[in-house]
Write a structure and sequence with these properties.
Strand order of the largest sheet: 2-1-5-4-3-8-9
CATH superfamily: Glutaredoxin
Strand content: 15-25%
CATH class: Alpha Beta
Largest sheet: 7 strands, mixed
Number of helices: 6
Number of strands: 9
Helix content: 40-55%
Structural class: alpha+beta
Oligomer: single chain
């Protein structure tokens, strides 16, 4: 299915939800859930409990692993290319963070990991990440590989059909959205967790935290 059609379906679904009186309650509940989830994630985070090894396929079709990025600070976001709002916002924000970092950006590698491997092949990822900072690397894999890396980063995601969102049932296999966590993870050069940010966090504040982590890195 063409991306424009997916966006059109998403727009219709979102419009229908907005029109429904129940949507206001749902939105408030989801906002509270997200805030609570973020607080719980940050509060329970330990260096050895978030993150881990992975082997995925990048947006050029090359197989890569976490070891390929060792020595760099990582900014990792889990999303999907057909996302109508959150993911483009997050990647635009990450792009601003990279600009804000200036020369310190050389120490950082931003990664966009897809939670929609059924649709997000390397070509789709290349098209998506190509709209943002050129240093962003898109990663995808098999459903099993994505499930494993998501588990290691405590990322929530699931497929949501048009019918679940209050729309009409569709015969199109691609007529769905992905509900997912919306956090940006900062990982150290050794692969250990440092901090988690909202996808709408002030880029200047994220850059400040990264600079602090860079300055605090033990000398080799």
């Amino acid at each position: 299915m063409q991306r424009k059609h997916v966006y059109a379906v998403a727009a219709v679904l979102l419009a229908a939800l907005t029109a429904a009186s129940a949507w206001e309650f749902y939105a408030a509940r989801e906002a509270a859930r997200e805030a609570s989830e973020r607080q719980a994630t940050a509060a329970s985070a330990r260096r050895d409990t978030i993150g881990g090894s992975f082997t995925l396929t990048d947006h050029t079709g090359r197989r890569v692993s976490d070891a390929d990025f060792r020595g760099k600070f990582l900014l990792i976001f889990f999303g999907y290319t057909y996302c109508p709002d959150v993911c483009p916002t997050a990647m635009a924000n990450v792009s601003l963070v990279m600009e804000e970092l200036g020369s310190d950006a050389a120490e950082v590698q931003p990664l966009f990991i897809s939670v929609d491997p059924e649709r997000d092949d390397p070509a789709e990822l290349a098209d998506f990440v190509g709209q943002f900072d050129p240093r962003i690397v898109g990663l995808t894999g098999t459903p099993e590989e994505i499930a494993e890396v998501a588990r290691k980063f405590r990322v929530y995601y699931r497929k949501v059909t048009a019918e679940e969102l209050g729309g009409e049932a569709s015969d199109g296999a691609d007529d769905y959205l992905m509900d997912h966590s919306a956090y940006v993870y900062l990982m150290g050069p050794d692969g250990r967790f440092i901090e988690v940010f909202s996808h709408t966090e002030d880029p200047a504040e994220v850059a400040r935290a990264i600079r602090e982590a860079i300055r605090s890195r033990p000398s080799a």
